[in-house]
Design goal:
- The complex is a heterodimer of chains A (269) and B (131).
- Chain A has helices spanning 2-11, 15-27, 31-50, 78-92, 136-139, 152-167, 185-194, 207-220; strands spanning 60-68, 116-122, 127-134, 143-147, 175-183, 236-246, 251-258, 265-268.
- In chain A, helix 1 crosses helix 4.
- The longest helix of chain A is centred in the first third of the chain and has 20 residues, at 31-50.
- Chain A has a four-stranded mixed beta sheet.
- Chain A is globular and about 50 Å long.
- In chain A, strand 1 (60-68), helix 4 (78-92) and strand 2 (116-122) form a beta-alpha-beta unit.
- Chain A contains eight helices and eight strands, in the order αααβαββαβαβααβββ.
- Chain B has helices at 34-42, 56-65, 77-81, 121-130, and strands at 7-9, 47-50, 68-71, 84-91, 100-105, 111-114.
- The radius of gyration of chain B is 15 Å and the shape is globular.
- A four-stranded mixed beta sheet of chain B has the order 1-2-3-6, covered by helices on one side. In chain B, strands 4-5 form a two-stranded antiparallel sheet.
- By secondary structure, chain B is α/β, with parallel strands linked by helices.
- Chain B has a single domain (7-130), classed as fumarase (Alpha-Beta Barrel), CATH 3.20.130.10.
- The chains are: A alpha/beta (269), B alpha/beta (131).
Chain lengths: 269, 131
């Protein structure tokens, strides 16, 4: 199952992303920008028809697993099961193996394991597995800052917009911007990553946050970076925010950038 | 390996499916190669293809040695791999996607980012919007 998710997510771009790209291919004022978006749509078509990865960077296998607390997992180690799936999927699907076992000596593991797994216990009797392959180019442009609470909403906006500005052409714009606000340092980072599993074109459940997402998106698209940084009004396709309670002294903000290959596939068991 | 007059394409292709010349091969972030670029320009390298901005040092090197930096569309790997007509590993086969390949391409779509006159398309795009 994990193996199939790896291949699905890497080779078949979601309808939600294709719909937005098709809309932006018309809206973008820059001729170069439109040409680039057209190339991306054509590219997604080839990848889909031939079942080859849309991007050679088939990413770190990031796996979110929400386990219903009434479920008992038996017959082996869950992490081993996930890693076996990643190994099979990345081998069978001709996906690139991009993982090095030690960040310092940098020897490739040869099968794209280990995955980065985030487990969460939730009510119920189902298990939801979301696989989100994450490319290195956009991951490298991500950032985290512990703001002062007094910096408030303006400070948050500035930090998110500056992160996208500094990233410029490097994370393969048009990007999707995941933002985690609140919690602790690691909680904010995890929320920013998880925000990148929300389908494009969906509203935030919280009305004020939804407004904030739209405001930040508008500001980002005024930067002029455009598709692939070659100029234009389509720098980001969406901004997704997740929030959590935080300490009276803290205002953590994490920004995780996804390239236009906004890839994730989920299955519920 | 003689670099004079050559073009380097920064890419780490995915494995080729049976019957394919090469797997999906889009450009990778060029700035990771900045530290190694000027010595290669001095050896006669004429152009590089990648994605993303280059350091000031590299841009000056392009002017000094008369070379060009191009960008291909990042993430258009399936499309770009169709333009590659042959691929052969020249060095470091053990590095897999990071090995040095010799590629022959046809109608490979690129944009000029940095030219021999010190122009920078990424900077120009940003200043256009401010006008």
């Amino acid at each position: 199952m994990v193996a199939d998710l790896c291949i699905e997510a890497n080779c078949h771009l979601g309808e939600d992303v294709l719909n937005v790209l098709q809309k932006k291919a018309v809206e973008e004022k820059s001729v170069t920008g439109r040409e680039i978006i057209q190339q991306l749509i054509e590219n997604a078509g080839i990848a889909d028809r031939e079942e080859i990865p849309m991007c050679q960077d088939t990413g770190v296998a990031v796996v979110f697993i929400d386990i219903g607390q009434e479920v008992a997992l038996t017959g082996g180690d869950l992490y081993d099961a996930v890693n076996n799936g990643v190994k099979e999927g990345y081998t069978r699907g001709y996906l690139r193996k991009s993982m090095v076992m030690d960040p310092l000596d940098r020897v490739n593991t040869g099968d794209n394991t280990p995955a980065v797994v985030h487990l969460k216990l939730v009510p119920g009797d189902r298990v939801r597995v979301t696989l989100a392959p994450k490319g290195g180019g956009s991951e490298n442009m991500s950032s985290l800052k512990m703001l002062k609470p007094a910096e408030g909403i303006e400070g948050i906006k500035k930090f998110v917009i500056d992160t996208v500005k500094v990233a410029g052409p490097n994370p393969c714009p048009p990007v999707v911007v995941g933002v985690g606000i609140g919690g602790t340092m690691e909680k904010a980072a995890l929320m920013a990553k998880h925000a990148l599993t929300r389908p494009l074109g969906t509203k935030n459940d919280d009305c004020d946050t939804d407004m904030l997402e739209k405001e930040i998106l508008q500001e980002i698209n005024k930067l002029g970076i455009g598709p692939q940084g070659m100029g234009g009004a389509v720098t980001a396709l969406a901004v997704h925010i997740e929030k959590y309670a935080t300490h009276i002294a803290c205002l953590p903000v994490a920004v995780n950038i996804s390239c236009h290959a906004y890839r994730h596939k989920a299955v519920i068991i | 390996m003689d670099l004079a007059g050559q073009i380097i394409y920064y890419a780490g292709p995915a494995p080729a499916k049976p019957g394919y010349v090469i797997g999906p091969a889009g450009p990778t972030t060029s700035s990771r190669m900045d530290a190694y670029t000027v010595p290669l320009l001095a050896e006669g390298l004429k152009a590089m293809i990648g994605k993303g901005s280059r350091s000031e040092e590299v841009k000056k090197g392009l002017e000094k040695y008369g070379a060009v930096y191009f960008a291909a569309v990042g993430g258009a790997a399936a499309l770009l791999s169709r333009k590659i007509k042959s691929a052969r590993v020249l060095a470091y086969p053990e590095l897999g996607p990071e090995a040095v390949f010799e590629l022959e391409v046809e109608d490979f779509p690129v944009f000029v980012i940095n030219d021999v006159h010190g122009n920078d398309l990424y900077q120009m795009a940003l200043s256009d919007i401010q006008e």
